[in-house]
Amino acid sequence: MGSKDLANECVDLLGQLIRNACVNDGRIESGGEIRSVDLLADYLGATGLDLERYEPQPGRVSLVARIEGTDPEAPSLLLMGHTDVVPVNPDGWSHDPFSGEVIDGFVWGRGAVDMLNLTATQAVAFRKLADSGFRPRGTLIYLAVADEEASGVWGAEYLVEHERDAVMADYVLTETGGFQMHSPGGVRLPVLVAEKGTYWSKIRVKGTPGHGSQPHRTDNALVKAAEVVRRLAEFESAASIHEVWRAYVEGMQFPEEISTALLDAALLPHAMAEMPIGMARMIHACTHTTFSPNVAHGGTKTNVIPDSVDLEVDIRTLPGQTGEEVRALIDEALGDLAGQVEITSRDDPSSASPIDTPLWDSLARVSGQLVEGSALVPLLMVGATDNRYFRREGSVGYGFGLFSRRITFEDYAIMFHGNDERVDVESLALSEQLWEAVARDLLE
Fold this sequence. Notes:
The protein is an alpha+beta fold. It has helices at about 5-20, 35-45, 115-130, 155-160, 165, 220-235, 245-250, 255-260, 270-275, 275-285, 325-335, 360-370, 385-390, 410-415, 425-444; strands spanning about 50-55, 60-65, 75-80, 100-105, 105-110, 140-145, 170-175, 180-185, 185-195, 195-205, 210, 290-300, 305, 310-315, 340-350, 350, 375-380, 395-400, 420-425. It has 2 domains: about 5-185 and about 350-444, 3-Layer(aba) Sandwich (Aminopeptidase), CATH 3.40.630; about 195-350, Alpha-Beta Plaits (2-Layer Sandwich).
């Protein structure tokens, strides 16, 4: 099968995954990943390999396919893509977010870069390898996993805890990275070797109920909650120049004045002010503990002063940061209000993998051939991926893929969970070639 045929196959499979609209809004009954597992099972079933399904909740299905290695001592590789996507507001889109249509060489739709593009190209590469009679020394596993967009409770977390033998591998590749970043030394391809932790918190603000017609000197929980939100939104934690960030900046070979500013906590604010918005957000998130108050629930009736408001805050933590340290930052942000609220948090710490590994070397060899003149740089993932579950069990987990020059980092950053999400056909072809070549390079 030629490269053009494989690219068309990736486009077709991605379009179908987008149209399945496996939207995960955090509720157990959402997601419906069974639709895409049925699709992928039909697609991969032609290989003749055994496929296994895992369904911890109705409709929340994950799919595993394996090409067993000939040497039990050889390293194993897991290609992992999730099938769920985040909710979308169609009003902000130029095209139907669940059409999967191809326009000017781009496949449009929710999940096009997060991460149905990689889920599809991994499946195409896996099927091509299987059809070719690929029998490597090390085992190759493909996992189409559910529930990534809601912390992986019914996907990766469940599988690692309850179906470990089916999914564990020495090396794991999942989202994301591989967008082409230009530097004085040439193209740099970021590999996400670490990711921030989450310290999602619910803050309950209490007040005293009363009649809305007499608001003077009342203890209105909503008014107090508004001040809590303001303080959290305006709070700026101290910058951290950690090991992964330093390795990224040095690997990018920026001009000396830029590198100096990016590696000096005191100079960072000015450096970010001079950057395009997408890059500035990335720099800030990579070097700071971030607070984003995103959800509020409270009040019962227009004429009733509310006595309780619940706020949900997305807090992302840096490598090595403890829950106690984050809680201290919350108290610092809230000041005198810290003692007037109830805070419950879920601490999911940062995770990381080393770069002196055979997988890193394999990615460097293969990507250097696919993107001429490129080199890898390590980077911190500022969101969360399912890699953390595998890293904590001893796997080396990286986020990678390949994007063409048609998608800049600025484009990518804005589209991620945003409007007009799309991926170009060339990027799909590059990623498919990447997975196939890395499997051969690492496992044979």
